[in-house]
Design goal:
single chain; about 325 residues; mainly alpha; Serine Threonine Protein Phosphatase 5, Tetratricopeptide repeat; about 60% helix
Length: about 325
């Protein structure tokens, strides 16, 4: 049966059954060319593409071309675009894609780097004007530390007198016979044991100086209240931070009041290593040597004091008492 006969029979019959199977006779150039039913042509194209009735590449292209003339936007003509790969592209096309990608990546990287630098500068500016977090181990640079004199702080009179208390004046007479003008402070007993060493590994030099002076002032306050054991503890804390002549001298006097002769002698020797010829250390060492029965050595210390201060009353009295012995 020819294509014309088949097509005429189709026109004489009822509407085409799109759900049924496409007859083999319809898979023909002449039939496809004369067919104007878009839906039926789409069904024929589907059968041809499936390969159930054989593989006909040229017939498939012919059917697609005819369908495109009737309905260019037919869903059956849509083809999936495969992902482009290096194998599916020419060498020049692939090189162009790679170059474009690298250029875009470099531009984005530069923008990100510039943004991070600006953010870092902003963070540094904010941190510069913000104090360290309380409880952290942050340290303040020396250039930003403002040293405030105690004399400029408007303390009440009771605190001001404590800060201005001169333990050296109280210890002027090492035998403890000096009469104090101010009444002694109340001694607080039963205090907990104080650690005699302070960890300063995370502190700056300026912070160490401040902390050492503060611990020494605590020792002075304890000394004034006649709590010599606590005074020794605080002086020891100050010395563990930064060894100073004043702290050694003050601790030596507190040890003398506790009658810890050897400890006091060690502190006097430490003072004289730091500052040879220190008058107070020589006087205290002379007193210690007298208590320890080293009278000749005590006389030598007193005479060293008199060579520098001929009118020193404590040295003069001590020299005479040593000679009397």
């Amino acid at each position: 049966m020819s294509a014309d006969a088949v097509f005429s029979l189709q026109n004489q019959s009822s509407a085409v059954d799109y759900t049924g199977k496409v007859p083999v006779e319809h898979l023909d150039y002449d039939y496809i060319e004369k067919c104007k039913d878009v839906k039926y042509l789409e069904k024929i194209l589907k059968v041809l593409r499936s390969g159930d009735e054989g593989i006909y590449p040229h017939l498939i292209k012919f059917c697609e071309s005819h369908l495109h003339k009737l309905h260019p936007r037919s869903p059956a003509l849509r083809k999936e675009n495969l992902v482009a790969t290096a194998a599916s592209l020419s060498k020049d096309e692939w090189s162009q894609i790679v170059d474009d990608f690298l250029q875009t990546w470099q531009e984005e990287t530069k923008k990100t780097e510039t943004s991070l630098k600006q953010q870092s500068m902003f963070d540094d500016l904010v941190k510069e004007n913000m104090p360290p977090i309380r409880g952290s181990n942050c340290s303040i640079p020396l250039s930003r530390v403002k040293v405030v004199s105690i004399d400029n702080i408007p303390y009440p009179n009771v605190f001001h007198s404590i800060f201005r208390f001169d333990v050296e004046r109280e210890c002027e007479m090492i035998d403890g016979s000096v009469v104090k003008n101010d009444p002694p402070a109340i001694r607080i007993t039963g205090h907990s044991k104080i650690r005699t060493k302070v960890d300063t590994s995370l502190l700056t030099q300026q912070e160490k100086l401040f902390l050492a002076n503060r611990e020494k002032e605590k020792g002075n306050e304890a000394f004034r209240s006649n709590d010599y054991e606590e005074a020794v503890a605080y002086y020891s804390r100050s010395l563990s931070i930064i060894p100073t002549v004043a702290a050694y001298n003050n601790r030596a006097q507190a040890e003398i009041n506790l009658k810890h002769w050897h400890n006091a002698m060690t502190d006097c020797q430490s003072v004289l290593k730091l500052e040879p010829g220190n008058m107070k250390a020589l006087l205290r060492r002379a007193a210690l040597r007298k208590h320890m029965g080293q009278f000749q050595l005590a006389v030598e210390d007193l005479r060293m004091v008199l060579m520098k201060e001929p009118h020193n009353a404590a040295a003069t009295v001590g020299d005479r008492s040593s000679e009397a012995c």
